[in-house]
Design goal:
single chain; Rossmann fold; 2 domains; two-stranded antiparallel ribbon; 18 helices; globular; binds S-adenosylmethionine
């Protein structure tokens, strides 16, 4: 294990440090199968750029020795850090601005008693069977589809009339479920199948329609996915300690909100394990729009998007960057694109504020671990990891450790587009994805 000895590391030294870094194969988790990375509740819902759970497990196991540990993730996404913390009997807290992330994470971190879940799923499937079975659609005539009125245009844009009606009827029946835990479980399954039931271009992370696509029928898709989730729940239930299951509210603190301002007391967290958004990369609000419209999670999609870090909507004219490396990148980019330079500046400023917040909430001796890769936009290297290392120091952290890991190709989500930096479909990307990423670890000494 190579700990960084220097108390003071200048930005030039940071660059040297990263250049000299060798890949640590122990952290690549080569050979892990989808059944390993998708174990327990980890395969409930697709989510772009999610962690592999083994990485979080390893960090927690290396850094946590106290039984009452509290682990935080300011960008919890689909909750990989939470599921891992709960499985080990630790408290978990954090934020994500994406409202669908909140629902997914809550459901994934909540083990349900297997017999009860089985009974509830059977009841639900028997109620919706008549909806999905064309032979029996007559029986379901009196079910009024629940289709969020204010998003009707978007729903018509993405769904055939038949699937829209069927989904609307299923949704109405889900909302009739009185047990909130079961209702949320069903909503996550519903949210997960939406892409395949729509004419969203298969495999695309951009909102593109495929008018030739034959969307799958909701009932069958939901039935299959619920079975899969049920198996995951049962395995998760086995590993979670009874005292955690019975007092889950004391262990879980999930908030929809901004990573720069968490409702967490000062000096209360033992470990932060997180992966931030990337600049001008995934537009999470766009990507999850099918769920956002069906579950009616945002009044105005355009306003909603502006809160997301790393999107093209963010610009700051009056704030100054602390990181010299970040400023160099912004200067280089301004020669290519003023617009992109502003977006990059806003991204790094937002992240500096996230690191200040990390410092505030961590206990002395606590660490934050940020997983991040570098990118290239318009020919300019965006050295995210190096900037994060420098920014962590500005926030008061000691740069404790840098791990360079290979991302096994089968785990790589997509290639990045050279011009835009966005994750593109594998077939239309014009550059290789970066097969390495870093875990940048800061220590709060005092
Ligand atoms: C790389 S993903 C995290 C994935 C997560 N590690 C997992 O395993 O699912 C980054 C997350 O940052 C969230 N995000 C973007 N802007 C945010 C903000 N201002 N505050 C909190 N979360 C934000 C996105 O919604 C997204 O879920």
């Amino acid at each position: 294990m190579s700990r960084l000895q220097q108390q003071e590391v200048s930005h030039e030294e940071i660059i040297k440090l990263f250049n000299a870094k060798e890949i640590d194969n122990d952290w690549s988790f080569i050979g892990y199968k989808p059944s390993d990375t998708g174990k327990w509740t980890h395969n409930y819902h697709r989510y772009p750029a999610k962690f592999i759970p083994q990485l979080v497990e390893r960090l927690i196991d290396e850094y946590i020795s106290n039984e009452d540990a509290h682990i935080n993730d300011p960008f919890f996404g689909c909750g990989t850090t939470f599921v891992t913390a709960i499985s080990r009997g630790f408290k978990a807290s954090g934020t994500d601005i994406n409202k669908i992330a909140y629902l997914i994470t809550k459901v994934k971190s909540t083990p349900i008693e297997p017999d009860y879940l089985d009974k509830k799923i059977k009841q639900f499937l028997s109620k919706i069977k008549c909806v999905g079975d064309t032979q029996a659609t007559l029986f379901s005539k009196n079910i009024e589809p629940l289709i969020p009125e204010r998003h009707i245009d978007r729903i018509d844009y993405w769904f055939t009339e038949e699937n829209k009606t069927e989904l609307g009827k299923i949704l109405r029946i889900i909302y009739e479920e009185e047990d909130e835990i079961i209702r949320d479980f069903l909503l996550v399954a519903f949210s997960h199948i939406l892409k395949n039931c729509s004419i969203w271009l298969q495999g695309s992370t951009k909102p593109t329609r495929d008018l030739k696509k034959k969307p799958i029928k909701p009932y069958e898709a939901l039935r299959k996915h619920l079975k899969k989730m049920q198996r995951g729940n049962n395995a998760f239930y086995e590993v979670v300690f009874a005292k955690v299951r019975e007092n889950l509210n004391d262990y879980l603190n999930i908030k929809t909100g901004d990573a720069r301002k968490q409702l967490i007391p000062d000096n209360s967290i033992d470990l932060i394990v997180s992966s931030s958004p990337y600049v001008t990369s995934y537009e999470y609000a766009d990507l999850h729009q099918l769920s956002t419209i069906w579950l009616d999670l945002a009044e105005d999609l355009t306003e909603y998007k502006k809160e997301f870090i790393g999107t093209s909507h963010k610009k700051y004219d009056n704030k100054k960057l602390q990181s010299k490396l970040a400023q160099d990148i912004v200067n280089k980019m301004s020669k290519k694109s003023q617009k992109m330079a502003k977006e990059i500046k806003a991204f790094f400023i937002d992240m500096e504020e996230v690191f200040d917040e990390s410092f505030r909430i961590l206990k002395s001796g606590g660490r934050c671990c940020y997983v991040i890769g570098n990118t290239r936009l318009k020919g300019v290297d965006i050295l995210n990891a190096e900037v994060f290392a420098e920014s962590l120091k500005h926030s008061g952290f000691k740069l404790d450790r840098i791990i360079k890991r290979e991302i096994p190709l089968k785990i790589l989500p997509q290639k990045r587009d050279e011009k835009t930096g966005r994750f593109a479909n594998n077939h239309d990307a014009n550059s290789e994805a970066y097969p390495v990423e870093y875990i940048v670890i800061g220590l709060k000494e005092r």
